[in-house]
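Record copied across here:
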Amino acid sequence: MIEKKEEWELVADPRINERFKAFRLEYISKQGFKAAELLGISATHLSSIETKKRQVSSKIITTLMEKYKLNPEWLLSGYGYQRREEEYMPNTLRKRGENLVETIDRLVATYRTYEWNQTRLDTKVTKLTKRVEELERQLAEIRTPDVHQE
């Protein structure tokens, strides 16, 4: 099963490293250097874990449990949920939600601008229509001879 090695390193199933990477990508950061910084380790250390050259230490597991609600049972065995509290949204979904809100805000602003411009255009079209009608009336008066003058 799991043996404790010196310096808090666990010797275990290499699938732990795969699950660690999956968890990191889903909940911490897709960028390795940023994830390493958030975990308090070097990018090289992170890379060594994800390429199965090093095992995930208990210190890193503890950090994942405290900061990111990692379910240690899932990490070590693959059973259960990735997080202890599933009400926490994964970062990717949270970001998609934020992006969706930003997109909706932009669409609303664009619509309001369109609506404002449409109102201005309608007003101008109405004024131009009245002006065209007035000019047509004047043109009709010029073309129609006055019968009473002759």
Summary: The chain has six helices and two strands. The longest helix spans residues 91-143.
